[in-house]
Amino acid sequence: MSNAPVYYALAQARFNPIAAMSKYIEQVQDRLRQEGYPLFERQQVMRLRVPGGGQDQGEPPQIDQAESWLITRNDRTAGFILGTSGITFHTTHYETHETFIPALLRGLQIVHEAVVLDHVTRLGLRYLDAVLPQDGETVERYLVDGLHGIRFGAHQRYSLSESVFDTDLVPDLPKGTLVARVYRATSPLGFPPDMMPNGLVLMPKFQIKEPQQHAVIDTDHYVEAHMPLDYNKIGEYLSMLHATTKSVFKAIATDHARAVWS
Questions:
Q1: E strand or H helix that includes residue 215
Q2: What number is the average pLDDT over the span 151-163?
Q3: Helix 231-252 crosses helix 97-115 at what angle (to 10 degrees)?
Q4: What InterPro entries does the record point to (predicted)?
Q5: Given a cut of 60, is residue 53 above it in pLDDT?
Q6: Which residue, 227, 205, 215, 12, is CA-closest to 124?
Q7: pLDDT reported for residue 171
Q8: Could you report the per-residue pLDDT of 97-132, keeping only the tens digit for each?
Q9: DSSP helix/strand/coil, 164
Q10: For the chain, which residues make up each domain, given as ranges?
């Protein structure tokens, strides 16, 4: 699409935990620097850990700190988030899955060359699309009838529609999970609380700081399994995740929306 509505996208691969990742970060960072990602930042992420059964039963929730590293392009349009058990490639200037997916695979390969990974446990893609009506239009023209929400005369602050699907990828993998959400609001264009583009800048057309009627299509598709570190297979799985995500996007957006974005 020449006028694609994607304003943030990420691709993620989780792998067997590497507790000593900090020992290898200089090597990983230097390799990614040579690939065009020279900016480097460390960050501490706060995580709430709720004890489960067994010996932890009865213990209060704990807040843990997890270290991760941001390795980013000079223009802050794309980069990697590396943790002790996963790598994410994210971008605010998405073009096509044909360059997006290989970027994650290259990052995963560089990490493997440094730490020698054993396997991958999760693959996922997530996209945020901004539905920004043109002058004289409403959001309804861009969303299929079932997503128009409840109308009864009162001012609506916001609305949320969510659907969760089981997806079949290939026979040797368990079912995937596809979550499709549509947020509608009159507000600045923002992000879900669990998805922030740390270290990146938005395209100018998506830097909307004043309240505006809009919707956000949030699609999250992932599969969890014990997967060997076979880059060709992993690339195929990610392409399958993308294909199904594209199908649900088509089921959400109207013909008019696709014509505007084409």
A1: strand 212-228
A2: 88
A3: 150
A4: CHP04255
A5: no
A6: 12
A7: 77
A8: 999 999 999 999 999 999 999 999 999 999 999 999
A9: strand
A10: 6-261
